[in-house]
Amino acid sequence: MSSFDLFSIGHSNIPAERFIGLLRHSGVSAIADVRSTPFSRRFPWFSGKNLAVTLAQHGMAYLAYGEALGGRPRYAALYRDGVADYEAMARQRDFQIALDRLTGEGVRHRVCLMCAEREPLDCHRCLLVARSLAERELTIGHILHDGTVEPHAATEQRLLALAGASDDLFVTGQDERLAAAYRRRARAVAYRATAGAKSVVENK
How many CB atoms lie within 10 A of CB 11? Predict the structure, then answer.
């Protein structure tokens, strides 16, 4: 497990005991919660305050990162045709500052990103946050619910397989194919805005 700089996990409906066990198995000492709304009505043990208490009981830290690294941006400028635009979000100054802070946490902790979706390719923690960290040459391992840890590079290969052949004649190289696959997957799974998104451009 030492080959990974950070981990990621989706809590889904997993029991709290199993969740803690998966973290322990990977040597995680801190959860970085990247949910925009750290609350779960159906699984209250994963609501932020409850989770922080549970983690503390097991010697782990709870780090709130949802405001800067969450998948539901507050500003209309960060949506494209009503869908959260991960590429635009990754360019935001606050996002990059939060990544700096998150990377710095690695000095004290073995950090695991956490969101709700079980499958990494259904979640912004992989398609947005882990992608951005990988671009900084950090290694990320996605903790799956069967106990295995999938390297982010392997997740990207699954993403390419899901995307199939590109119908864009200008997409030829591996980097271009991967970027197109990320874009297509994000369009399929990213948060869709409601009328409440603010028409304010952040960090201008």
Answer: 22
Ranges of each domain in the chain:
6-189
SS3 102: helix
Task: Please state the pTM of the whole predicted model.
Answer: 0.91
Q: What is the pLDDT of residue 3?
A: 87
> Helices marked H in 41-173 — which ranges?
48-57, 66-69, 86-90, 93-105, 124, 131-135, 152-163
* Right CATH for 6-189 from 3.90.190, 3.40.50, 3.40.630, 1.10.287: 3.90.190
Please choose, from the candidates 82, 106, 97, the residue with its C-alpha nearest in 3D space to the C-alpha of residue 190.
82
Q: Return the number of other C-beta atoms located less than 10 Å from residue 108's C-beta.
A: 10
Residues of the chain with confidence (pLDDT) below 50 = 169, 200-204
For residue 199, the model assigns a pLDDT of 53
Question: Which helix (H) or strand (E) is 143 found in, with range?
Answer: strand 140-143
Report how far residue 149's alpha carbon sits from residue 162's, in angstroms, rounded to the nearest whole number: 20
Token output for 10: 């989706």
- For the stretch 105-155, pLDDT in tens is 999 999 999 999 999 999 999 999 999 999 999 999 999 999 999 999 999
Residue 164 is predicted with a pLDDT of: 82
The rounded distance, in Å, linking the Cα atoms of 72 and 68 is 10
Place of tokens 């946490």: 105
